[in-house]
Write a structure and sequence with these properties.
Blueprint: E1 5-7, H1 12-21, E2 28-32, H2 44-55, E3 61-69, H3 74-87, E4 91-95, H4 99-108, E5 115-118, H5 124-132, E6 135-139, H6 149-157, E7 163-165, H7 187-198, H8 202-217, H9 221-224
Parallel strand pairs: 1-2, 2-3, 3-4, 4-5, 5-6, 6-7
C-alpha cells in the first residue's frame, strides 16, 4: 500500500546520493538540508551552495530538510527557514526537546509557508501551537509504543488534517521491530495503530493523510504518489 516516499537530505556529503535516488515517476522524492547533528561539518559556503541547488529547482526535490534544532543550532535553522521562504519550499523540521524553540524561531522569521515537524514526540499543547502556525505533525513508530502516552494522546486529539505518516527509517522503529530494521514496509502497521488510537477507519484515514502530504509538498496526489 505504500505508493510514494520522500527521502530527506541531512548533510552536504549525502546530497548527491539522495538526489540520485529520486525517481518522481515512481513516487520517490527528496529534500535537501543540513541536519542539526551535522552542522559542525558545514560552513557558510555550504549554506550558499544549498541555496543555489534549491534555486535551480532540481527534478524531484520538494522540500528543505532535515533542518531544525536539538539545542545549539538556531542560526542554521533560521538560515534554512529563510532559504525555504526565498525558494518557496516546505520545511522538514527535526525537533528533539525543542518544540517551543522551533515554534519561536518560525514566528521570529514570520513563517507563512508549509512545514512538517518530523518524528513528533511531545504534548498536545506543543503540537497544537505548531499546527496553528501551519505545521503538519509527523506520525511514526513512536505511537506504537504503550509507554509513549503523551505523544499518543496528542496524536489522537489533533485534527486528522494536521497529520503526516512517516518512518524515519531505519530509526524510530515501531513496537516489535528490531533496532535498525525499520523500513517503509512498516508504514501500514503504523497507519493501523494510528487508526485505532483515533477510532477511525484505516482506509478512510489513509486518504486524508495522502491529501495532507499533497498540500504539504505542493504536488497533486496523482503526481506525488503515482498509482502505476
Amino acid at each position: 500500500g505504500v505508493r510514494a516516499l520522500v527521502v530527506p537530505g541531512v548533510r552536504r556529503a549525502d546530497w548527491d546520493r539522495v538526489q540520485a535516488l529520486a525517481n518522481p515517476a515512481r513516487g520517490i522524492w527528496y529534500c535537501l538540508g543540513i541536519h542539526p547533528w551535522f552542522v559542525e561539518e558545514h560552513t557558510a559556503a555550504d549554506l550558499e551552495l544549498l541555496g543555489q541547488r534549491l534555486g535551480s529547482y532540481p527534478d524531484g526535490c520538494i522540500g528543505v530538510g532535515e533542518c531544525g534544532l536539538d539545542e545549539e543550532q538556531l542560526p542554521w535553522f533560521r538560515a534554512q527557514i529563510q532559504l525555504a521562504t526565498r525558494h518557496d519550499y516546505p520545511l522538514v523540521i527535526h525537533s528533539v526537546k525543542a518544540h517551543d524553540q522551533v515554534h519561536a524561531a518560525l514566528r521570529a522569521e514570520r513563517w507563512q509557508g508549509r512545514a512538517l515537524v518530523h518524528g513528533f514526540s511531545g504534548s498536545y499543547q506543543q503540537a497544537n501551537k505548531l499546527v496553528d502556525l501551519g505545521c503538519y505533525i509527523g506520525v511514526g513508530g513512536v505511537i506504537t509504543h504503550d509507554r509513549a502516552r503523551k505523544t499518543r494522546d496528542a496524536i489522537a486529539r489533533l485534527p486528522a488534517e494536521a497529520l503526516v505518516l512517516e518512518t524515519d527509517a531505519p530509526d524510530m522503529p515501531p513496537a516489535g521491530v528490531e533496532k535498525g530494521m525499520n523500513s517503509p514496509a512498516c508504514l501500514p502497521a503504523i497507519l493501523n495503530c494510528l487508526a485505532r488510537l483515533r477510532g477511525q477507519d484505516a482506509e478512510a484515514l489513509a486518504e486524508v493523510l495522502l491529501a495532507n502530504v499533497s498540500r504539504l509538498y505542493g504536488r497533486s496526489e496523482s503526481v506525488l504518489a503515482p498509482s502505476g
